[in-house]
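Researcher: Re-running this chain for the archive, since the previous output was lost when a drive failed. Same request as before.
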Amino acid sequence: MSDFLQSLLASGRSPHTRRAYTSDLRRFLTSVGLPPDPDGAALARLDRVRIHTYAAELARAGLAPASISRRLAAVRAFIRFCVARGFLPSDPAAAIRGPKAHRRLPRVLRPDEAAAVVEAESTARRPWLRLRDRAILEVLYGAGVRVEELCRLDLGDVELGVGQAVVTGKGGKTRLVPLGECAVAALDEYLRQGRPRLETGATPAIFLNARGRRLSQRSVRAQVTRAAGAAGIRAGVHPHTLRHCFATHLLERGADLRAVQEMLGHARLSTTQLYTHLTRQRIKAVYDRAHPRA
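Model: Regenerated structure tokens:
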């Protein structure tokens, strides 16, 4: 298993994905009676029946369909790796699929609510930290980046003069994202007046913590939660909420679906199409509230 986990690191998988796969595979190997790092002889005992039994155990344990699918995805990826390396002659998990998960629509704030979160006064005591916090919120909502992508941004990734940034997404893939006027202005002020007060010369990261190190995803999540509270929105607002708002608000104003797909870095258009369901729901809600014969 250690070779497989190394391959995930080499392929640019996020730390979150690697941790999830490690945990899921340990549970799987224990369940099917294999050692934590099985050799070829141990792997040869894997067959379709064992994997199917494991999938049935997950269902009996009452796990949500999405959790079962994630655990089986880790198993399938591991077994494909073993087949490619010659540890297994064929793939016993090829025909095993997880249950269909009901796709829940993400929470999306109204444009005025999203603006209130972004413009909420930071609780940081130092003015340069307040500049940083405002820039973080403007980029999350203004560019639709994931929290890990935001934390990964380096100084050379941003071109304020043309209003764009090079973002490194899932699998190490890069894409260009536009930065609107508000995000550019907030970043410019932070880079001129905020970041120099935090900089130690040890990292090229744009967003730094109070010790001059690259800001963590946990810190960004905490900042979004605080900003939502200050805006009077008490529950369920995370960095990804602002990404959902970015996509939905663009589509509501007539943006091209494929352009939004590119900006979000979605590999499949069907993933982006989720937001068209949100816009239809919101239009229907407006109609129901406003039309006298609705």
